[in-house]
Specification:
Layout lengths: L1 H8 L3 H9 L3 H8 L5 H13 L3 E6 L7 H21 L5 E5 L11 H18 L4 E3 L7 H14 L4 E5 L5 H8 L5 E5 L14 H17 L3 E5 L3 H13 L8 E5 L4 H9 L3 E8 L4 H10 L1 H14 L1
Parallel strand pairs: 1-2, 1-8, 2-3, 3-4, 4-5, 5-6, 6-7, 7-8
Helix pairs in contact: 1-12, 4-5, 5-6, 6-7, 8-9, 9-10, 12-13
Length: 308
């Protein structure tokens, strides 16, 4: 299995330097990363929305080692919000954040991340949009959920992400599937031990369906993060059984992956949101995209050979 190997490489400084210098990297990275600056990504946001789609924007970067970097991450999102306000898109353009980028792993990181994310959530609400807290490795989740709960006291539209491959997630889903909640369900893209997570694709897919059923039968707003045609079909069937209208859940897919499917689902009347990442610190995000699908890795290797 190449996936675990690639995920391990996503934490390697040596591999980071090698991949960054590889001749084919820029071409492949541009497939998954919409740009390096907010000025570069805004035209893509406009184009995406014009197709009848919605977006969630992620300023990539997780390897924060200083408080100054955490403050800079906060400021990058505040700059993004200023640009979104000028566009007047409302909830068609929301944001996704990783709390590690806001200093969660530093000393006193829980309080630091909360203090950094709060003004971003407040500013997002002021322009009619919201923020979703991305899930990271399992050691960070208790902090993430606690911050999510705290933010929802004043900003109940704040969303969070749960990962189907973790054993704990069915219980998390039951707790979160309440009125007013927004929950994105993904399979999971971090290297996790067998003590906390399912390891086989079959087990993960089964867990995904069980959790999806909990969310669909709950009172919250499910956000289905998957490109898997089978899971998309299952989602539609579970939504039908639960009596949900098309605007009572949404699909979410990554920028650069199955773009035709984005448009098809939107044309059928579904809410379809494109997870759009941008920024200069793209390595960790990029490596997880390679790990998720062998075809992405093959595309990368071919590009390296072609450009070599």
């Amino acid at each position: 299995m190449l996936g675990p190997v690639i995920l391990a490489a996503s934490r390697s400084d040596k591999m980071r330097r090698f991949v960054s210098a590889a001749p084919g990297t820029k071409q492949v990275v541009s497939r998954f990363i919409a740009g390096e600056t907010v000025e570069q990504v805004i035209p893509i946001v406009k184009e995406t929305v014009a197709k009848g789609l919605e977006v969630t924007l992620d300023v990539v970067g997780e390897d924060i080692t200083t408080r100054e970097q955490a403050y800079a991450a906060r400021d990058a999102y505040m700059e993004l919000i200023e640009h979104l306000e000028d566009l007047g898109l409302g909830a068609k353009a929301e944001m996704s954040v990783k709390l590690s980028m806001f200093g969660q792993s530093l000393e006193g990181g829980h309080e630091l991340a909360l203090s950094n994310i709060r003004p971003v959530v407040e500013a997002a609400a002021s322009i009619g949009t919201t923020v979703t807290l991305d899930a990271e490795d399992h050691t960070t989740l208790d902090s993430m959920f606690a911050i999510h709960e705290e933010l929802r006291k004043d900003y109940p539209q704040t969303g969070c992400v749960i990962q189907a491959y973790l054993f704990r997630t069915e219980d998390d889903a039951r707790r979160l599937a309440e009125a007013g909640s927004r929950v994105r369900l993904v399979k999971g893209a971090y290297k996790e031990p067998a003590t906390v997570a399912y390891q086989s694709k079959a087990e993960i897919d089964k867990a995904y369906v069980r959790i999806l059923k909990i969310l669909m039968e709950g009172e919250g707003y499910p956000m289905i993060g998957s490109h898997d045609p089978r899971l998309i079909a299952v989602t539609q069937e579970l939504a039908r059984r639960a009596g949900r209208k098309l605007d009572e859940y949404e699909f979410q897919m990554l920028y650069g992956i199955r773009s035709d499917e984005h448009v098809r689902l939107a044309a059928e009347g579904h809410r379809m949101r494109v997870y759009t990442a941008y920024g200069t610190d793209w390595y960790g995000y990029f490596m997880r995209r390679l790990a998720e699908k062998p075809a992405n890795l093959l595309f990368f290797v071919r590009s390296m050979i072609t450009k070599g």
